[in-house]
Amino acid sequence: MIEVEKKFLLTPAQEKRLKRGAKFLGEKVFTDTYFDKRDYELTKNDIWLRMRDKQIELKMPAEDQKEKSGTGCNVYEEFSSEETVRQMLNIPKGGDFLADLKKAGYVPFAEITTRREKYKKQQFSVDIDACDFGYALAKVELLVESAEKVKGAEKQIAEFAVKQDLKIASVRGKVIEYLFRKSPEHYKTLLEEGMITE
Ligand code: V4E
Hints:
alpha+beta; 28% helix; single chain; 8-stranded antiparallel beta barrel; binds Thiamine Triphosphate; 6 helices
């Protein structure tokens, strides 16, 4: 499945309106530790390797979706099997996965704990996240089976946002905001590489 999502910053009034009529699915708290090499080899290429609690996850732009879409939606594919991640990053099996990561030169660069409220509104999944470093944002998401369906999903999200009175703007994701606040050198590298724009 391909995840099509758009992030929004919410005013209290927008949050109230977004939650109105939405089905509350639950709340969870999780901690992400993000890894990269010291030269930022992964993140410079928009590849995000993280341990979410005890689960390894690799997030990268979906094939054929590497160009930024006109509506500012992000389209990523996610892999969460240790074996697949090992294959994709060429990490040989020596022993414990974390030890092998370290041996291959991957070091943690951010640790973020998030409290997430999950909602379903119409066909959209809505996450409202509050992070431990004082950043909060909402994500509206649709899952599609194939690349041909991405454009339609982006259009649906954009129309939903207009109806919900959400502001369509470029919003920094949690990790980018974390780097902006705490790791200016890493942030600057991603900016210079054209991976992020201001
Ligand atoms: C894809 C990405 C990053 C990895 C984190 O992804 P994100 O969707 O922000 O995190 P989260 O915790 O909500 O994931 P989920 O629980 O849905 O799996 S970090 C940066 N990016 C890409 C990115 C970018 N290129 N530019 C900007 C401004 N933001 C994010």
